[in-house]
Design a protein that fits this description.
This protein has about 140 residues and is of the alpha+beta class. The protein is built from four helices and five strands; from the N terminus they run αββαβαββα. It has a five-stranded antiparallel sheet, sandwiched between helices.
Length: about 140
């Protein structure tokens, strides 16, 4: 069922990748628990070279904010962030949405565009928010 929500989000936005991360006890911080990919896009499941808890996007999401980046390479002047973009296959634009339940961060829903930046529409941002709400209901 979670995979269906992610697949619907990928299809609605024609993005490259959708991931769901959870902060699970005994695991590395925020491992990917679900991932759907557009044809020809590589998986980032299991990539451990990125220190997620220190990433600026994760810090914003932990505060309950949705992060929308049309051009991720210009979003932060942070070498670790720029290395993450490369480690994630040339991530060029993203929408990252907190999955909240009872005021607590339960997951991170990420929508990635690889290769070239793109301008996300208000509808795509809204669809990502609704998908995160649905994921929260399913968890």
């Amino acid at each position: 069922m979670l995979e269906d929500v992610l697949r619907d989000l990928l299809e609605a936005t024609r993005a490259s990748r959708v991931t769901l991360r959870r902060d699970l006890p005994g695991e590395q911080p925020f491992p990917i628990v679900e991932e759907v990919l557009a044809p020809g896009v590589g998986s980032i499941r299991g990539v451990t070279s990125v220190d997620l808890p220190s990433q600026p996007v994760v810090l914003e999401v932990q505060r309950g904010f949705q992060v929308v980046q049309d051009d991720s390479a210009r979003a932060y002047d942070d070498p670790a962030f720029l290395r993450m973009l490369e480690a994630y296959g040339g991530l060029a634009a993203q929408i990252v949405t907190p999955v909240m339940r009872a005021g607590r961060l339960e997951g991170i829903l990420s929508l990635h565009q690889l290769g070239e930046p793109r301008a996300w529409t208000a509808e795509e941002v809204s669809v990502a928010r609704r998908a995160a709400e649905r994921v929260g209901e399913l968890l």
